[in-house]
Structures are given as structure tokens and as C-alpha cells.
Design brief:
It is a single chain. With 620 residues, this protein is of the alpha+beta class. Helix content is 44%, strand content 14%. The strands form 3 sheets. Strands 2-3-1-9-8-10 form a 6-stranded antiparallel sheet, with helices on one face. A hairpin with a 4-residue loop joins β6 and β7. α6 packs antiparallel against α18 and α13 packs across α16. The longest helix is centred in the C-terminal third of the chain and has 27 residues.
């Protein structure tokens, strides 16, 4: 994944040599991202920019025709030649201005725009969060980067962990924007921009730091509601035609350099592989990851799909040795704690892809756009059952659940009672997808921030099931899955593209009637009908396993010593962030047989591993 970084030392000129050194240092911090790097300096403005691209000869830096604007772009939408995303934006700026130019641009890129005349720096993140962009202010200036570790380097390591952000990691497995693991460093929300003016810097007080306000140049809610309002009454076959056509255009637009696909054997990745192979005169490369645990392994299905489609297939095995090796690389690769276990097999696939291709296509987004998760159905069903419970009974259930909220993860009566406490469909779904139901209990000093799931002013109009799609698209997809793809493939200089998140496909998805997504009890019906045009029907009807790793088995086996060291109670107490009594009790319960607590333990372990890597073993 291409990446950018920059430093703006405001209110004073900086000599060209100093800026050149800084620009090269920024580029070096992102060198793993690709083969081609560019730097530029503006001594009169104190500005240094760096960009690294996964594609040879790609241009990530460009100037507007009138010389007023300097543009840097990073992400998976960077392409080689005069039609690069940076040059396209730069060409639009003189006539449209920044906001309208960004609205016109549909490529999944993060953007930095220097305005020489206004002396402002604008940072923007792509619509669906496919490329991260972090920033940090100080008394001397502003620094930004596609990766958190660049800013840690620029801060000279003088940073404090943000407990409220870690509470979000424990709940979701990722830290949603605008928070990051550090106080004083923030991430732009998807579809938003931030303009920095000269007065921002000298008036900045690190002790009273805040993310500030962001301006949305694009909003998923408005897009979704517009597409819902314009729906006609197509047949299911008509919906399939529209979705396939939009996906085919997206797959064609996503090809850049040597292109492969990540093939799990599921509906989404199989459909992407089929569309790519149909447009290729030669066998395209497909990569799958299998596990040495039957309940998690889909590699045989993937190999069968590859055989039917005629691709050149690579089948990788995630065994104990690879699990140990890759879990130890997680803190360095992600440079911010990240706790989706599917990152481990994704890293294995990225490592293989880095040796043979510059671009890889994934099926990310198919579930979240077309109602593919079983948790959606369960949340709707359970909320329908409990929403008519009398208020007094709901209060009794809430009091019972609050005494030990994490017991709900074990299932049984505790899970049923926890479901009964939900007052809305969004609250029911939040509880279902939360790793920790009350993450603040595991932290010594953390208050969980208000959750956007529960802000009804943000919810779009439409079918209740589409509310769940919207919640996942703005949270799990933009802040979780896309971060995983960006970091894992970026670590090996590979550009990952998600055709399902192309703007045309997004519009086709929201324009598809809900009954074509959940059709007579069948989830993701429109995509399954589409895949039947390429593969036998049994490939679209098999049970879904997903890409999750066998974490419970690993923690009780090859990773147990690693986990024991990270969960040492004395070290946790000395560090002062985690409540060692709560965490140790959970670990003991897990070892005693409550294996479902791996969902709680994994984010704790990912935080501990990251904290040891970047902040010192004992937190000093």
C-alpha cells in the first residue's frame, strides 16, 4: 500500500538541507511500503513531504497547473502515469477548490494538500477508510503519516498511552478514529478532512490536546439514503445483473501491475477471482491460507474454486510454527495494537504475495454490503423477541448482567439475560459484536467514550437490517478490516484493493432492495446468485467458516508461554494500565476450560505485545 508522511514547521523558515534530511527520514520510515519513493521540500514554508509507492514509476506527489497546490496521495488508489490520483486532484483544485475536488475523486487514497497562497495544509482520508492517515501537533509544527510509528519517531518517543482508546481496542479489536493508542496523535475519520492554518500550531497546548473538528466531504449516510430513495422494483435477476456489472468495472479498474487475488473459497473472494480471470488472457494468481485445524480450514474449497476457474493457485498452511513466528511480528507491522485474529493468516498471505505481485484483490466488504454475516440475522431475531419485555423485567435483567457482564460471552442463560437488556437493535448488535461488554473493567483508569452505534441521529432511514450494514460499514469495515489489509499487505510492499468498496459497487449495493440481500432466509442472496454464473451451486451454499484463526487452541498450545509472559501480574501492576486482578482471573478461567474467553484475552495480549515493543517491556 502506498503511503505518505509530512512535517510542517510553521512560522519559521527551515534551511533546505534540514528539510531534505527530514524528508528522507520520513521516506525511510515507510520504505517497506514499496519500490518507489519521492520527496519534496518547501524551505520557505518549512514543509517536507515524502511518499512511497507499491508500484514502480507511480507518482504520489503532484503540483497543480498554476503552481498553487502541492498534493500527496497514499493508499491503494495510487497508479502510475499522468492519470495518477495525485495529479488528478491537483488538476481539479484551481477550478473546484479542495472540498469539491475531493468529492470528485473516488480513488481510495489519503490526501495531503499544501496551499501555497493560503498557507494551509489540508489532510483528508478516503471515503471508506481504506487508507489510514494520522496527525500530531506540537508547539513547533505538525506531522502526519500513513503509519503511527512515523509519528512516534517524530515525537522522540515522548508519548503516553491513551486508556480510553485501549478500552475501544478491548471492545472491538481495533481503535476507531479519531482516537489512537497515544494521547496527542489522532486518525482522520473516513470521508473527512481537516484544514490546518498557521495559528493552529503556536496556540496548541499539548496538555489540553484534542482531536479538533473534522469536516465531512462525503458521508455514507447521505449516499445510502439517496440510493434507497431511488430504488425501483427490480427482479432478483435484475439486481444480480447490476451488481455483477458494477463489480466487473471495479475489478478492471483495480488491476495495476502484477495482480493476484486472495481466495478464501467463500462467495466474495470467489466472485472477485472469477471476474478477474474472465478478463485475463492468462491464468491469474490466487493465494489461499489453510489451517491445520479442520474447523477453521477452507483451503480445500479454495483450491477447488481455483481449479474450476483455471487460476494459478498457491495454497499456504498456517501451522504452529507460522503462528508463533507471525504473532511476534504483529506489533512491528501494525505499530498500533490490533486484535483481529485474521490478521495472522493475512500476514502469511501478504508475505507470499510480496514475492510475486504488486497488487492483490480481496473480497473485503462483501458481507458488510450485502448482509452476509449470521450475526445480523441473530441480532434482528433476538431484538424482535425481547423488545416487548416489560420495563421492570428488563431492569432486573440489566442489574443481573451488570454484576458480571463478561459471562455473556460463555453463552447460556447469561447470554440470554444480556440480550434482554438491550433497548434498541443497534444496542443488541453492539453487545453481540463486542469482545468485552464492559472494557473499562480491565483498565485501571479508563472511561469508555460514547459509542457511535448508539447515536440515533447518525442512523440512516431504511430497513432495520440495513441499519446493521451501515453500522458495520462505518465501524468494523472502515476502522477494522481496512486497517488490517492496509498494514499486512503494506508491510510487504503490496497494494491491496477491495473491489466491493468501489463507489459504483457501493451505490449498487445500497440500491439493491433489502429482500434481495436477505431472500427467504438466505443471506447475501444476490451475490450467491451472481457466483452461480461462474461456479456450481454447491459452492454458494456451503456453511461459512470465515478467516478467523484458532486462537483458543493456540493460547492453550503453541502460544501459551508467550501469553503467560505477557500476562505476568507483577508486570501488569507495575505498568499501571491494566487491572491485573481482572485479567489474571480471566486467564485462569480460560485455562480452566472456559475457552470462549479467548475473545477477551486476545485484545489484551495484542495490547501487551504492542506496549512491550514500542514503550518498553516494563512500560518505562
Amino acid at each position: 500500500m502506498s503511503a505518505i508522511a509530512g512535517s510542517w514547521t510553521a512560522h519559521r523558515e527551515v534551511c533546505g538541507n534540514a528539510l531534505s534530511t527530514k524528508a528522507r527520514r520520513l521516506a525511510h520510515s515507510l520504505a517497506h511500503r514499496g519500490r518507489h519513493s519521492e520527496v519534496v521540500e518547501r524551505p520557505g514554508a518549512g514543509l517536507a513531504l515524502a511518499a512511497v509507492s507499491a508500484l514502480d514509476e507511480a507518482r504520489c506527489l503532484a503540483s497543480s497547473p498554476d503552481g498553487r497546490y502541492l498534493v500527496a496521495t497514499g493508499g491503494s488508489g495510487v497508479a502510475a502515469g499522468p492519470t495518477s490520483a495525485s495529479q488528478s486532484i491537483a488538476n481539479l483544485l484551481p477550478s473546484l477548490g479542495i472540498v469539491d475536488a475531493l468529492r470528485r475523486m473516488q480513488e481510495p487514497v489519503s490526501v495531503a494538500i499544501w496551499d501555497e497562497r493560503a498557507r494551509t495544509l489540508t489532510l483528508a482520508r478516503d471515503r471508506m477508510g481504506q487508507s489510514d492517515l494520522y496527525f500530531m501537533r506540537s508547539r513547533s509544527g505538525l506531522a502526519f503519516s500513513s503509519e503511527l510509528k512515523t509519528l512516534r519517531q517524530e515525537s522522540n518517543g515522548c508519548l503516553e498511552v491513551a486508556p480510553c482508546a485501549i478500552s475501544q481496542l478491548f471492545r472491538h479489536g481495533y481503535i476507531p478514529a479519531p482516537l489512537t493508542a497515544y494521547r496527542g496523535i489522532y486518525k482522520l475519520p473516513a470521508g473527512a478532512l481537516r484544514v490546518f492554518h498557521l495559528p493552529d500550531v503556536p496556540e496548541h497546548d499539548a496538555a489540553c490536546d484534542a482531536a479538533g473538528s473534522f469536516e465531512p466531504y462525503w458521508a455514507l449516510r447521505q449516499e445510502a439514503e439517496a440510493q434507497i430513495a431511488s430504488r425501483g422494483r427490480p427482479t432478483l435477476s435484475g439486481s444480480v445483473d447490476r451488481v455483477v456489472a458494477s463489480l466487473e468495472r471495479a475489478v478492471c479498474a483495480s488491476r495495476a501491475g502484477a495482480t493476484a487475488t486472495l481466495l478464501s473459497g467463500g462467495v466474495d473472494s470467489s466472485l472477485i477471482a472469477a471476474l478477474l480471470q474472465r478478463r485475463s488472457a492468462h491464468a491469474v494468481e490466487t493465494i489461499s491460507v489453510g489451517f491445520d485445524v479442520s474447523g477453521h480450514d477452507e483451503s480445500e474449497w479454495a483450491a477447488d474454486v481455483a481449479r474450476l476457474l483455471g487460476t494459478r493457485h498457491t495454497r499456504l498452511l498456517m501451522d504452529n510454527a507460522n503462528a508463533i513466528r507471525l504473532v511476534e511480528t504483529m506489533p512491528r507491522v501494525f505499530c498500533e495494537p490490533y486484535a483481529d485474529s485474521s490478521a495472522i493468516p493475512t500476514l502469511l498471505a501478504a508475505e507470499a504475495a510480496g514475492a510475486s505481485c504488486s497488487t492483490i484483490l480481496t473480497g473485503d466488504g462483501g458481507d458488510e454490503l450485502f448482509f452476509g454475516h449470521g450475526s445480523y440475522v441473530k441480532a434482528m431475531r433476538n431484538h424482535g423477541l425481547v423488545r416487548h419485555l416489560p420495563g421492570p423485567l428488563r431492569s432486573v435483567c440489566r442489574a443481573y448482567a451488570s454484576r458480571a457482564p463478561e459471562r455473556a460471552r460463555l453463552g447460556g442463560i447469561a447470554a440470554l439475560i444480556a440480550e434482554a437488556t438491550s433497548g434498541s437493535l443497534a444496542e443488541t448488535y453492539l453487545a453481540r459484536v463486542s469482545r468485552w461488554r464492559d472494557p473499562s473493567r480491565a483498565l485501571k483508569a479508563a472511561t469508555e467514550p460514547p459509542h457511535p452505534f448508539l447515536d440515533t441521529t447518525l442512523h440512516p432511514a431504511g430497513h432495520p437490517g440495513e441499519l446493521l450494514l451501515y453500522l458495520d460499514q462505518t465501524n468494523e469495515l472502515s476502522e477494522g478490516l481496512m486497517t488490517k489489509s492496509d498494514r499486512a499487505f503494506g508491510a510487504f510492499g503490496v497494494q491491496a484493493r477491495s473491489p466491493f468498496l468501489d463507489h459504483g459497487v457501493l451505490c449498487a449495493a445500497w440500491g439493491t432492495p433489502f429482500e434481495h440481500k436477505l431472500h427467504r432466509g438466505e443471506t447475501k442472496a444476490v451475490l450467491k446468485r451472481a457466483l452461480e454464473r461462474f461456479l456450481p451451486e454447491h459452492h454458494t451454499r456451503r456453511p461459512k467458516k470465515g478467516f478467523g484463526a484458532p486462537v483458543a487452541r493456540w493460547l492453550n498450545g503453541p502460544l501459551r508461554d508467550w501469553a503467560e509472559e505477557l500476562l505476568d501480574p507483577v508486570a501488569m501492576r507495575n505498568r499501571g494500565i491494566l487491572d491485573e486482578r481482572v485479567v489474571s482471573a480471566l486467564w485462569k478461567s480460560f485455562l480452566g476450560g472456559n475457552r470462549k474467553y479467548h475473545t477477551h484475552l486476545w485484545p489484551v495480549l495484542m495490547f501487551q505485545a504492542w506496549d512491550r515493543e514500542w514503550n518498553g517491556k516494563d512500560g518505562r
